[in-house]
Specification:
phosphoprotein, alpha/beta, Rossmann fold, Sig_transdc_resp-reg_receiver, single chain, DNA-binding, 222 residues, CheY-like_superfamily, Arc Repressor Mutant, subunit A, DNA-binding NarL/FixJ family response regulator, 2 domains, 47% helix
């Protein structure tokens, strides 16, 4: 069983519930933090001291308070952690069930488990932790499992999110092309951007770019 587990969750009662459920497993050390910045610091410190964490369990939404944070969401935390700790196993425990967000976490950030925070969520999280410890297969709650069915949904990648964010800021396609070239992302041509945005509008049944941005915001993509 995992030796060290870190929980990133800003609600005390949920943290306590997770610890109680995971304490039924033979985990030597279970720590929790309420801020994403603190989670990253703990992971780095443990690694430097040669006592790394084996598993990160993180929520996606973190409420703002009087302490200013550089990392304000679980998505951002996971993106950074995956780059710095490619072998660390990551489980998401969240009420979020939008398929595009779940897809991004698995396809772009290579999370290992997604547990829907429901009435049976804690028991399901325990089951997910056991599976992650015993195998390399991913775990995904039945409630959101349809998100990973290619016949049921479009795969949204970081490039798409960036295009929609640029639209939300009022950039023209020519300007987006220039920014993509500076970021060394591809494709960068105006025709490629126009084609991809057309596909996104069709997939989301958006009437125009403004409508696409509105739908993307409603879905939590931007």
């Amino acid at each position: 069983m995992f030796k060290k587990v870190l929980i990133a969750e800003d609600m005390d009662f949920i943290n306590s519930g997770i610890k109680v459920e995971l304490s039924k497993l033979d985990i030597e050390q279970i720590d929790y933090v309420q801020y994403c910045d603190e989670a990253l610091l703990k992971l780095k410190s443990a690694s430097l001291n040669n006592v790394p964490y084996d598993l990160l369990i993180s929520d996606l939404s973190f409420n703002e308070d009087y302490l200013e944070q550089k990392i304000t969401s679980g998505d951002e935390l996971i993106k950074i952690v995956r780059k710095e700790f490619p072998s660390l196993k990551i489980a998401v425990f969240s009420v979020e069930d939008k398929k595009y967000r779940v897809q991004t976490l698995f396809n772009e950030h290579k999370i290992n488990a997604y547990v829907w925070k429901s009435r049976e969520g804690l028991r399901e999280l325990k089951k997910a932790v056991q599976q992650l410890n015993n195998s390399e297969s991913i775990y995904i709650s039945p409630h959101v499992a349809g998100s990973m069915s290619k016949s049921n949904s479009i795969e949204i990648v970081e490039y798409d999110i960036f295009l929609i964010e640029c639209l939300s800021k009022g950039y023209l396609q020519e300007e987006i092309s220039t920014i993509l070239k500076e970021k060394m992302w591809s494709p960068t041509s105006v025709s490629s951007i126009e084609k991809r945005l057309k596909i996104l509008r069709e997939q989301f049944n958006a009437n125009n770019p403004t409508h696409l941005v509105s739908i993307a915001k409603d879905l939590g993509l931007i």
